[in-house]
Amino acid sequence: xxxxxxxxxxxxxxxxxxxxxxxxxxxxxxxxxxxxxxxxxxxxxxxxxxxxxxxxxxxxxxxxxxxxxxxxxxxxxxxxxxxxxxxxxxxxxxxxxxxxxxxxxxxxxxxxxxxxxxxxxxxxxxxxxxxxxxxxxxxxxxxxxxxxxxxxxxxxxxxxxxxxxxxxxxxxxxxxxxxxxxxxxxxxxxxxxxxxxxxxxxxxxxxxxxxxxxxxxxxxxxxxxxxxxxxxxxxxxxxxxxxxxxxxxxxxxxxxxxxxxxxxxxxxxxxxxxxxxxxxxxxxx
Length: 285
Known about the structure:
Elements: E1 2-4, E2 14-20, H1 28-37, E3 41-46, E4 60-64, E5 67-72, E6 76-83, E7 86-94, H2 100-114, E8 118-127, E9 137-141, H3 164-174, E10 179-187, H4 195-209, H5 216-234, H6 237-248, H7 259-274
Parallel strand pairs: 2-7, 2-8, 8-10
Antiparallel strand pairs: 1-3, 3-6, 4-5, 6-7, 9-10
Helix pairs in contact: 1-4, 2-3, 4-5
């Protein structure tokens, strides 16, 4: 299922995981781990043929002047980076289409072989939260004592469609590796990457690890997007009213516009703005 490309000398390594797709709203989880893994050495690669339906996640073909030059396949890799005196193993890539239980077992096998002492899974979910406030972060854990007193846990029974990164946290925990998950809440009316949530996740991961992770690029990206969203919201009275209601956390939100309609309005505004501005526009894909 995977190949170890190198086996560096590690001291109490921690596995950090996030996958694209489900439970990665605003690309917040994958942006967080990609930021952490910057400059890291790839030490393991999973077998893509065993995990992906290439009709669902097609490889990218480069054709140059009519000649096929390169095929880039979806992949899952583990990178090693030393930060703050900690050895971090960052697992990231596209969520597998198939073979989830075998994949999770392989992650456990690899983690035990490399001496992983704990794991952190991160991701994000859309929620009724405003962009004008710091992104809230929910937490899960294989043991409650792994979390801080102030961490927010989902209350009662929460039955939701699972993701492969959820399975990693669950399976590692059942095999005796202490595991936590941090899940940022992303405003449901924002489409495309949401760096403010990546900031919140990276800060929470840093506290869990007891290290400092520089996040200046993420903070700057969040600042730029905040200005763009503020401008877009100010031009739309209905959206501004909705954001103000979210800010005051009013319980009755039945009569406000849906997240989809708000996102459509903001995207329309930003498309109009692009006609009269230079430089890269806000990524509203």
